[in-house]
Amino acid sequence: MLTTRITLRRFSGGEIKGPFNFIAGSPCFPRDPVGFNGVTEPSTGELLAEVASSGPETVNWAVESAVKGFEDWRTREPRERAKVLLGVSRLLERDLEKLARLEVRDSGKPIWEARVDVKSCADAFEYFGCVAAALRGGHVQLLGGNFGLVKREPFGVVGGIGAWNFPIQNCSSKVAPALAAGNSMVFKPSEFTPMTAMSLGELLKEAGLPDGVYNVVQGGAETGKQIVEHPQVSKVSFTGSVPTGSWIMSSAAKKIIPVTLELGGKSPVIIFEDAEMNNAVKAALLANFLSQGAVCSNGTRVYVHKNVYEEFVERVVDATKAMKIGDPMNEDTVVGATISKQQAEKVLGYVARAKESGAVVLCGGDRVILPHPLDQGFYLSPCVLTNVKDDSEIVKHEVFGAVMCVMSFESEDEVVNRANDSDLGLAGAVFTKDLARGHRIADKLEVGSVWINNYNLFLSELPFGGFKKSGFGRENGVEGLECYTQTKSVYVETGDVDCGPLMTS
Ligand code: NAD
User: Fold this and answer.
1) Which domain of life does this protein belong to (predicted)?
2) Measured from the CB, is residue 400 less than 6 Å from ligand 1?
3) 241 C-alpha to center of ligand 1: Å?
4) Ligand 1, atom 40: nearest CA belongs to which residue?
5) Which one, 133, 164, 273, 436, has the greatest CB density within 10 A?
6) Under a CB-based contact definition with an 8 Å cutoff, are residues 195 and 167 in contact?
């Protein structure tokens, strides 16, 4: 049953032709194309592009290019690196509209969100441009006038692998700190969203990045594996699912290289009786319905104090029903298209099984067929569920779709225990006017990010990353920059060598 208003299409794009790889400073086709991946435009279900996957020869070409790029880039003054990053930030703002439209066609997310994403990429390059020159090591005073230096050095070639939900943002949040710290990169976007990583390469070149420092290869799991296993890749930064993250970690373990893993989530939002209700409702929408619900940090377990539960549910359902589903390119569309038929079916499957086990669907959870030419697009109405059990599949698993579970609670201890009863720990939130309680809960939540009285704000300044199976390592902030460096300790002797009885004079 369709519960939501609909907007119609007013844009048609057509197929996009490659090349989609970017190696040694130029767009290029793979040297050893391995089949063609037909990339679907989520809003229409039509072919957006045919992208050849990169085989081992192309991955090797990209890594060799990155090795050369690194030799040059590592010697550049940090201020020179900063200038390039700040330049890219300005170019991203210049091309914001063009990139946002490309991102919409690739990912199906609504244009208003795609603009926010591209702006956040400009912010990331600006932030890491600003801190690049401030990256410091340390000085340690030791006995007898001796001292030590702690230097921060880049790893070399970093392999970056991205997910499909925030294509250009995933890429930028790896590239900006990696390059700021003096590394080079070979990046592989998701095979579902191959477009904007290449565009970023052109902007980096225009901003003055030396050839080879940033490279893009295309493909799925096989190409990703080749990047991780390549002997000259010295660190991997991965965004994606827990099973793939686990595989990458075990593969990296064979080479003994570090990884940053940004994985899934099933985050709690806790709304106390004294919360400002309008803000709590707005945040619950932010926590569940951006990017068709495919946001790693989404607060899909919403716990509401029993005394305000009814009011919250009524308001959140009214607001959810009012969100317009439609052509993601339209200005007034709020909810766009799910990335693929397979993902849409996965989400609908979760809702169907939840219903079978007693959940009550208050709105949404249906496939929405829009008029031609959008009738083959993958549109789902955002869903609010109640009457769900803590140990049910819908409460335990990451759905990665627009499905909010609302549950009631009575006491602080009870809700914290329930919130922490998850093997994922990416994010969470607490809504209360009592800041002492807000901080108390923030301390107790076993997650990498907590918002007090807000949700899903990602700031370049604040580190972001997981606890538990949501991963480790951080993106954003100085901590994000440091994840792309390794320390080297240098001891400086100012006196004579004392080797004990080995030699006495
Ligand atoms: P996925 O794990 O299926 O794929 C992610 C990427 O890994 C893709 O580029 C894919 O081609 C590649 N890949 C797949 N198998 C590989 C292998 N064996 N070796 C190397 N690369 C391989 O994930 P997805 O479906 O694209 O993304 C959804 C998941 O990403 C969700 O779980 C979501 O929570 C998570 N995510 C996390 C964050 C975060 O910052 N924590 C952000 C966005 C998405």
Assistant:
1) Eukaryota
2) yes
3) 4
4) 262
5) 164
6) yes
